[in-house]
Amino acid sequence: MTPLSRYVVETLVTLVAVVALCVVLLSALRRVGVGKVGGPLELLARLPLEGRRAVYLVRAGETVYVLAASESSLAKLGEMPRESLPSPLPLEPQSFGEVLKRAVGVTKSVPSSTADGSDAAPKAAS
């Protein structure tokens, strides 16, 4: 084996070992819960006003803050107790197919024509 091929093989083996170590370490950390959202802060709502401006409702403990954000600043507009907000409606889990059909506008409907292609409404006899 030439020194160049030996170097390439050694480098590839080291690279595979480092990638495998990273995968194992990241999966172990994910199981432990590192990187999960937690703590006393929660984003309740966001209302975009313009491209770079928005109003946020942020819960910190039992207080909800109304914040205005722009590209250069963050300002507190007000605060309220958490009990004054309406309770959020529970979301029902939906499949991707249902969401796609609703987005495209496809609805389940019964066809109004008969098998021969004529309208199902009877004609009046005169």
Tell me about this structure.
- This protein is an alpha+beta fold and 126 residues long.
- Among the domains are: 1-34; 37-83.
- The protein has helices spanning 3-32, 96-104; strands at 41-48, 54-60, 63-69, 74-81.
- The chain has a 4-stranded antiparallel beta sheet with strand order 1-2-3-4, with no helix packed on it.
- The longest helix is centred in the N-terminal third of the chain and has 30 residues, at 3-32.
List the helices and strands and how they pair.
Blueprint (H helix, E strand, L loop, with lengths): L2 H30 L8 E8 L5 E7 L2 E7 L4 E8 L14 H9 L22
Antiparallel strand pairs: 1-2, 2-3, 3-4
Summarize the structure.
The chain is an alpha+beta fold and 126 residues long. Among the domains are: 1-34; 37-83.
Helix residue percentage: 25-40%
State the end-to-end distance. 101 Å
Task: Name the strands of the widest sheet in spatial order.
Answer: 1-2-3-4
In terms of structural class, how would the helical and strand content be classed?
alpha+beta
If you average the pLDDT, what whole number results? Answer: 82
Q: Compute the gyration radius: what is it? A: 30 Å
Could you give a short account of the major beta sheet? 4 strands, antiparallel
Summary tags:
4 strands, 4-stranded antiparallel beta sheet, alpha+beta, elongated, 126 residues
